[in-house]
Amino acid sequence: MANLDPSAELPGDWREATLVGRIATAEGPSPIVVRGGVVFDMSVVAPTVSELLDQGLWREGGREIGALETLDLLSPVDLQVVKASGVTFAVSALERVIEERARGDADAAAAVRGRLEAAIGGSIRSVTPGSPEAEALKQALIGDGMWSQYLEVAIGPDAEIFTKSPVLSTVGWGAPVGIRSDSSWNNPEPEVVLIVDSRGKAVGATLGNDVNLRDFEGRSALLLGKAKDNNASCSLGPLIRLFDDGFTMDDVRDAELDLLIEGTDGYRLTGHSSMREISRDPEELVRQALSEHHYPDGFALFLGTLFAPTEDRDTPGRGFTHKLGDRVSIATPRLGRLVNEVATSKDAPAWSFGIGNLMRNLAGRGLLTAGATA
Description:
Blueprint: H1 6-9, E1 18-24, E2 29-35, E3 38-41, H2 49-54, E4 63-64, E5 72-74, E6 81-86, H3 90-102, H4 106-120, H5 123-126, H6 132-143, H7 149-155, E7 160-165, E8 176-179, E9 186-187, E10 190-196, E11 202-210, E12 212-213, H8 214-219, H9 224-228, E13 234-242, H10 249-253, E14 256-262, E15 268-274, H11 282-290, E16 299-302, E17 327-332, E18 336-344, H12 355-364
Parallel strand pairs: 6-16, 8-18
Antiparallel strand pairs: 1-2, 1-5, 1-13, 2-3, 3-4, 6-7, 9-12, 10-11, 10-16, 11-13, 14-15, 14-17, 17-18
Helix pairs in contact: 3-4, 3-7
């Protein structure tokens, strides 16, 4: 894939924004900051993005380097745990129930979908999770034999929060994104991702693709790990946009995401996800993800998606599934565009650079010395 073109892939006002990310260099991975449209290598200020954000060290210092077009972008997070919240949109909840009832069989999905939509209608869209109205709706659905564990997390008091991807395993803009070679029903999940520091404060946001295997999760919710955590199955980027006077949590709440899938066979699918339809506020999802735990290196939190493709790609009634070589673009004006091409997890570059490798690399570069300065 070609080098990143800032005018096409970054927010329209990227020269006024503060952006944070990581690049591959000959020496190893380095954090970068884009301030005033200028790119700075911040590795001598903070060796990791996690520390850079946690200590607020992005504001000054660093070594000015070349234009973004010439740099090899990595995923913009490093030591942060990658968490995800699921079933945070009504339509997503319906699709999860369909997966469960169809047992991963796309042929049965259309009939189940129609029956659920008739039973639930629009009522689930307006109910507040955990409210008395939500409990009343739950009892009505139980009485109709339509209750599901997915509806429990959609309208119940507790959000679905899970660990999407191990530390350092995410891929960035332009990298292949992976699906298991034994999956026949899968899709991208375009999402806004909050970046949270060790104190539980959201400091910025980026875009993410929470690749999902619908056949695996549809057979059993206990297969969530296999459906979600696979080689190259989580992409983030292109860069983290930090919150400031010009970009706030309200911009996340108002975000409109556009999805474009382009196949090598000429296939084209567009989708749209509006954060205004989310069932739980982003800050509530952060609170539930934090829970009673402490994340000393912070965490990234996928906020969920409204996108659940039902359009047929090949066989009528079988809906959408990826094909190898699909180009997936996720975009929103304030965060830019994340682009990846689909490969199998088996054929995508293996994840081989773990925490131990990173620590040895940083030590060898002399970047773990206390008090390093620009």
